[in-house]
Each structure stands twice: as C-alpha cells, then as structure tokens.
Amino acid sequence: MTILRDLSVIWAMINIAIFFLVLMEFRVPMKRLIVYSVLYMIPLIAINLWFLLTFGPTKMAQSLFFIMLLPTVIFYFFLSKYRDGRFLYSFFLISDLNADLTMLTYLLDLAVPAPRYLVMFLSRLFLFPLLNIYAYRRLRRPYLLVQHSVDRGWGAFAVAAALFDILAVRLFSRPDMIENRPDDLVLLLIVIALTLLTNWYIFSALNAQRKLHEMHEREAVFLIQTSQLQLRIEESNRMKSLLAIERHDLRHRMHALYTMLLDGRVKDALAYLQKSDEQIADTQLSHWCKNTVLDAIFSYYFTQAKNRSIKIEADLNIPEQLETDATELSTVFANVLENAIHAVEALPEERRVIRCKCIRHPKLMFRVSNPYCGEIKWSADGLPLPADKPAGTGSRSIAAYCERHGAWCDYKVRDGWFTIQLTQP
Amino acid sequence: MKICICDDDKRDLTALRAVVRQRYSEPACFDNPKGLLDEVADGLRFDVYILDVVMPDMNGIHLARLLRSMDGAGRIIFLTSSCDYAVDSYEVGAFYYLMKPVQREKLFALLDEIDTGITAPDTPICVHTRERDIMVKPNDIDYIESMMRFPNYHTAQGTFTGLMLHRSFKDEMAPLLALPAFCLCGASFVLNLSHISSIGKFDATFHGGQSVTLPRSALPKLRTAWTDYWMDGEGFQK
C-alpha cells in the first residue's frame, strides 16, 4: 500500500503549488506563471519521490527543508510581487497550513483502523482541494487587500510563522516519526492548534485594521459630502431668494427703462441695463461636472482655493455615471486638490494657480498641476514624502487606491510645476 | 475646412460670418436649428459647427445631440453669453465653449487648431516584406513587435512581417517614433498609443480586442506616455 502513500505525497505537493498561486501575487501573468510552476513542480516532485523511495518517509520528513522548502522559497521569491516581509509571511503561512494538514492526515491514518495509508490518501484527496477552494473563495481577496493596505510588521509575523513551521515539522519527524513517540503526540497537536490559531489571529487583526482604515476614509468622505451638500442647499436657497427679488424687481426695471428711453436718456438706459445684467449673473449656481458626488468635491475645494486667492483653471469632462465608485474616487480628488491648495497658498498671490483637467476617453484621466516653492523629496517607491510642503499628505492614500483598483498615478516635476496624473483602468 | 454657423440672432450671425470669412471660406449660415438639421439629414456635412446655445425653438445642446447622431466627426463650438450649459457641453463632445462677445483671435485659434488636426499628414510608410512592398498608414498600425530580428507589423489590414533588421529596432522605427502617437516599449515593441483602449498589469489591449503582453519593466513608461498622449490633447476624442 505504499503506492497510496507516494500518490498522496504527489497530490499534496500539487495542491501546495496551487495554494501558492491562490494566496500570493506575482510579477508575471497567470498563464506564464502556471507554465513556470509546472516546469518547476515536475522535477521537484520527481526528486522528492526518488528521495522517499530511496530513503523512506522518516528521512524525507527530516530533509524537507533542503529538498522542498528551500528550493520553493527561492523559486517563488523571484516570481513574487512582494519581496519583503509580506512574501516571507505568505510563504510560511502557506507552508504552515499545508504542513499541518499533511501531519493531521498522517495521524488520522494511524488512528483509524484501516489498511495503512488508505485513510491518509483519501483524506488528502479531498481535504487539500477543499482547503484550496476555501482559500480561493474566502481568504484570497481579504488577504490580498490586507497585503496592499498594510506594509509594515510582516517580518515579525513571518518569524512567528516560520518558528511554528520548524517546531511542528521537528516534533513530527525528529528524532524519528511521531508514531514512535506517542508521548510527543499531544505536544504536536498543541503546536498545530497554536499555529492555526496564531495565524488566524494575525490575519484577523490585520483585516480589522484594514477595515478600520477604510471606514475612516469613508467617514472623511461622507463628512466632506455632507458639508458640501449643506453648502449647496444654502447656496441654492440664496439663489432662490435672489431670483424672487429679481422677478419682483423686473417690472420696476422695465418701467424705469421705458421712462428713460422715452425721455431720450439712452446712455442712462444702457448703464441701467448693464447693472441689471450683472445682478442676474450673481444668481448663477456653478457646476463643474455632471457627477453630483465629484461636483460637490470640486465645488468645495475650488471655493476654498478662491477664498485663498488661488486662480482655478478647470476643464473637467467627467460623465455622470462612472465605472468606479464615485465616493472612493472623490477621496482621491480631495487628497490631490488639498495637496495642491497647501502648496500654492505659500506662494505670492500673482503665482497662485491650480490647473485641473479631466478627460473620459479612452479612460478617465485626471491631472492637477500647480506651481510650488522649495524642494520636493521622494520616497524609495517614487512618492512625494508627506513632510514636504509642496507635496502635502495623502500620496500614500492615493497609492493605496491605485493598488486596489488597478489605477496608476504619475508624479512629475518640471519648470517649477508639480503635476499629479491619475488614470483609471 | 467647411464651417457652419447657427444662431437665431441675425445680427450675431452676420457679424460672425464676416469674422470667419476673413480667414476661411464662406461659412454656411442658419438662423434656425431646423434648417441646419434638414441639411445634415440630407447628407450635408461640415467640419465645424458653431452653434448658439440659447435659441427659442431648440437649445444648442439639444441641437448638438441631434447632429451627433447624424455626424459624429464634426467639431462643435458653442457660443453663448451664459456658462449655465458648460457642463452639458461635455456630454455632446463639444470642442469648445466660447463666450459672447466672440473674440476674433480666440475663434481663429480654435479654428486653426481644428484645421491642423484635419489636414495632419498620415503619410504611408513602406513595409518591405518577402512577397511584396506594402504601403501602410501609421494610423492603421496597432503595434510592431520585433521577433528574432524580424519586425511584425500588426495593423487593421492584418499582420505583416518585414525583412530582417540590419540595425537596431529603435533606429528602424525612428520615423514612426517621431510621431506623437508612437511609443517604444522595452526593446522590442512600438505601440500606437491612439489605438490602445486599456493597459493592464501585464499587457495592453487595443480597440480591436487583441492584446499584447509587454515587458513588466516597460509598462510604467508606457502608462505615462499613454496618459500624456491623451491629456496633452494629441489624441482625437471620439
């Protein structure tokens, strides 16, 4: 029945490879990744199978680090999108989960009275794919979002996951296989349980942190929208009052004009008409685009700019319906405009200008340019640093939005102008 | 360049006609939207439609919408004394929204810009293949890929393989790279930015639906070039 053992080892290795594809992000397209994975797994499986058949399961388990773990770390490191603590934690998390499942199915086989390796084979046949399906449907999205949102602390988590992995594998196979050391069985089960609980806790804590961060962002946007809607209502009421007054005064004006023209006072009549025209212009409510959410943001920040004697040059071709969530996009625009206002208000009044342009074809593209003073410093990943006045804050938030939605953002500095350009996918 | 003006105010119409005639050919003048719509429905087409916005029977925005349904190519310039309709003008793809009274220099600048776009040369290039020489317009090319020192031209008419390159791909493509719509991506790709409908994590997709996988290191530069191309107004917005 050792054939069942060998087949279950191969099956487990294939599913572990799939698990990597499910839970990690890579630098290459999926089709190419699958090809690379197949080309890697075939010799890896062959080497591990040869080792198993030649040296037996005990030696194989004891040598797992060299014949499986180390080459797999190197292989996925070069393909992984992240090459920092995120990669290490992901790797050891996947290794932990699959090692735990491997050990549990092995122990189940020992516990159940049935032909040797039969229960192990059958349980692995179903449980490994089930784990992959669960990971794909339930874990992948939140896990990848957490990796996008949180970029620190992964190293410490990776160390914890690695230690659990080493401890569990060591308890399982050294000095010999666990079935020969029943006294260590309880300890092994405790370590497996602790591994699962610890990883679950780490993930839950990070996910909660991400959700809190998103909630704060949404709250900030709602506050802006609420205040802007209130401003809109006040402005609209003011316009209504002005229009009512205009309607009331119209008859008097017509009569006054009639009298002036009848008396031959043409110049007076023209001056009177000019003044009336200016009063009508005051009743106008300005709109910047058709989308009401973004229009509120633009109105709010353009009013702020106007109050700071900043000239706004805007050409905003934005459709009413957007492919992306307007609320989330408005946070990005709010960050960009706030940065620009902070940068420009430090300049002499004659230099204060912000240029905004947005086009909708072929994709929604948005550009804001402003002059600045001082020096802009850049982070290692090409973002203007928060402490720098011309750049303001919020570039990390914009980067996080781009990461979530597949958008991209460019920053340019040229001839004393700072430009940020955002393109939707 | 064929220009038409539609304004219900006969004085404004006459004045604008006189201004346009100073530099361009005689424009067609309509003092009501229906007259213009009837002509366009009969097959008459203009390069530029200068439309008043506030008209008694039909406002200029609605008129533009009807014109767009019949003629998608003509550029529309709105004339108005009120900016109330500025936001609506985007919905009909207006080229510009000009405030009355019209400044001659501003109008000429807009018309010159349109004229340059219409008459811009799209000089065909000659692609030498083993079977024959093929004349290809740059605007028909989606992208060119160099494979094993042979350039493959992916165009609207199909894919052609040129003769073996005896100099670098970049040098060979220099005439195309001189055009604003073309961008070198990595060492083996030249892409027509105006034909790209989207750029993904690993590839670029064209209007025809086909996509090409590109070197990861070259994608950031391509994204920037593509955005700059459209934002700087080089692209024709449909």
The average pLDDT value of chain B, as a whole number, equals 86
| Unreliable segments of 5+ consecutive residues of chain A | 387-392
* Low-confidence parts of chain B: none
Note the quaternary state here. Answer: heterodimer
Radius of gyration of chain B: 22 Å
Strand content of chain A: 5-15%
SSE arrangement of chain A, N to C: HHHHHHHHHEHEEHEE
Kindly describe this structure.
The complex is a heterodimer of chains A (425) and B (238). Helices cover 68% and strands 8% of the residues of chain A. With 425 residues, chain A is of the alpha+beta class. Chain A has helices at 2-23, 30-62, 64-79, 85-111, 118-149, 154-173, 185-262, 266-281, 292-307, 326-344, 395-405; strands spanning 311-316, 353-359, 365-371, 408-414, 417-423. Chain B has 238 residues and is α/β, with parallel strands linked by helices. A five-stranded parallel sheet of chain B has the order 2-1-3-4-5, with helices on both faces. In chain B, strands 10-9-8-12-11 form a five-stranded antiparallel sheet, covered by helices on one side. The longest helix of chain B has 16 residues, at 104-119.
Structural key phrases:
heterodimer, A: 425 residues, alpha+beta, five-stranded mixed β-sheet, 11 helices, B: 238 residues, alpha/beta, five-stranded parallel β-sheet, five-stranded antiparallel β-sheet, 15 strands, 28% strand
Task: Give the topology, please.
The complex is a heterodimer of chains A (425) and B (238).
Chain A: H1 2-23, H2 30-62, H3 64-79, H4 85-111, H5 118-149, H6 154-173, H7 185-262, H8 266-281, H9 292-307, E1 311-316, H10 326-344, E2 353-359, E3 365-371, H11 395-405, E4 408-414, E5 417-423
Parallel strand pairs in A: 1-2
Antiparallel strand pairs in A: 2-3, 3-5, 4-5
Chain B: E1 3-6, H1 10-21, E2 28-30, H2 33-41, E3 48-52, H3 60-70, E4 75-80, H4 86-91, E5 96-99, H5 104-119, E6 125-128, E7 133-136, E8 141-147, E9 150-155, E10 158-161, H6 169-172, H7 174-177, E11 182-185, E12 189-192, E13 196-199, E14 203-206, E15 211-213, H8 219-231
